[in-house]
Amino acid sequence: MNDILIHKTTDFFQQTFGSEPSKTVLSPGRINIIGEHIDYNDGYVLPAAIDKIICFAFEKNNSDTAKIVAIDLNDEFEVCVNNEQKQTDSVWTNYLRGVLNQLKMKGYSVEGFNCVFSSNIPVGSGLSSSAALECGFLFGLNELFNLKIKPIDIALLGQKAEHWVGINCGIMDQFSSVMGQENKVIKIDCKTLEFEYHDANFSDYSLVLFDSNVKHSLFSSAYNTRREECEEGISIISANFPEISSFRDCKEEQVLSLKDKMSANVFKRSLFVVKEINRVKLACDALDSGNIELLGQLMFETHEGLSLDYEVSCAELDFLVNTVKEDNSVIGSRLMGGGFGGCTINLIKKGQEEAVKNKLSKLYQDEFGIELKIYDVKIGNGTSLYIAK
Ligand code: GAF
């Protein structure tokens, strides 16, 4: 599947600019097994890069102008690389403008270049196409101009570019896109950025994503509000328990004891975060010991918390999770990513995948009149240079 995308991208580059690209970069989307809305709360997350990617082709052009073409969008833009970039109405270009600004602010100098890219990561599905865009673009410029930026710093610069665009995100998406490894999930400590790879062995179960095919527009404002509510939560907790500076050191009982000192929303968000941090630790142990049933149960619990306490679900996602919960072949399901639409991630008994997919597609269509999209997940490598065989 990715071979077709790579050829399409490099052929397009050749036809547009009349030469072969000197660098071709593959930049993946990500899934997250568990640990949602936890990265910006100093907790642990368990994501992985996937085999859906953006392919970029780059070449220097001996000028001070960057010419960038988005093949799938049939759109392009040009900027002078020496200028400070401003936000525009064209959202996809803002991610790349944000990257150029970050490089400039950190003192990295780039010259003019040509770039084309194409993607098979569904946009708005919670698979983090934006992190793949920022980090793949950065990775390519790093290679093209020999900037010597370390992989983790590529992730951090990508995150800053996303903040510039307007989402005050954590580090999970960029980190997993850059650092992913085939058939491994990454346990990231989002406070220290220490990380470990764990085998992505789900035993008798397959990972399947159900894409609700909706994206409710309150995503970015609600995301930033959740972050602010959590900041308020931890500051109230620290004021009352001075030994605690981070949710990871906090116990459920301590949050419960502060119910009267917090607004209803801040209380619910804080409780969710403390429970979710614990769930990730349990889930990682369950994965390591092959107790996939326990992992699945924890995923259902996460969904309930995201829906009732963190309030980032929606009718479509709740329907997808609640429907498969009644099916014995599905042992875990939850909304994945920021919420308000996008995908659920599911663990389905091997051999039963098609039956579950067919049944759910029909029920979803009947309930909402929306076509369910389905992706079978393969865990792939992080951002890399493509070397033609
Ligand atoms: C989005 C953000 F970009 C991530 O940083 C993370 O917070 C996620 O939502 C929720 O877990 O993908």
Notes on the structure:
- The chain is of the alpha+beta class and 389 residues long.
- The protein folds into two domains: 2-201 and 380-385, 2-Layer Sandwich (Ribosomal Protein S5, domain 2), CATH 3.30.230; 205-376, Alpha-Beta Plaits (2-Layer Sandwich), CATH 3.30.70.
- 43% of the residues lie in helices and 23% in strands.
- It has eleven helices and 13 strands.
- The protein has helices spanning 2-17, 91-105, 129-144, 151-165, 172-179, 219-240, 252-256, 264-288, 292-308, 315-325, 353-368; strands at 23-32, 44-45, 47-60, 65-70, 75-80, 113-119, 184-189, 195-199, 205-215, 330-335, 341-349, 373-376, 384-385.
- The strands form three sheets. It has a six-stranded mixed sheet with strand order 5-4-6-3-1-13, with helices on both faces. Strands 10-11-9-12 form a four-stranded antiparallel sheet. It has a three-stranded antiparallel sheet with strand order 2-7-8, sandwiched between helices.
- Helix 3 (129-144) crosses helix 5.
- The longest helix is centred in the C-terminal third of the chain and has 25 residues, at 264-288.
- The chain is globular, with a radius of gyration of 21 Å.
- The model has no long low-confidence stretch (mean pLDDT 97).
- Bound molecules: 2-deoxy-2-fluoro-alpha-D-galactopyranose.
- Residues 36-37, 39-40, 128, 169-170, 172-173, 337-338 line the site of 2-deoxy-2-fluoro-alpha-D-galactopyranose (GAF).
Ordered list of secondary-structure elements with their pairings:
Layout: H1 2-17, E1 23-32, E2 44-45, E3 47-60, E4 65-70, E5 75-80, H2 91-105, E6 113-119, H3 129-144, H4 151-165, H5 172-179, E7 184-189, E8 195-199, E9 205-215, H6 219-240, H7 252-256, H8 264-288, H9 292-308, H10 315-325, E10 330-335, E11 341-349, H11 353-368, E12 373-376, E13 384-385
Parallel strand pairs: 4-6
Antiparallel strand pairs: 1-3, 1-13, 2-7, 3-6, 4-5, 7-8, 9-11, 9-12, 10-11
The chain binds 2-deoxy-2-fluoro-alpha-D-galactopyranose.
Family: Belongs to the GHMP kinase family. GalK subfamily.
Organism: Flavobacterium psychrolimnae
Domain Galactokinase N-terminal: 12-58
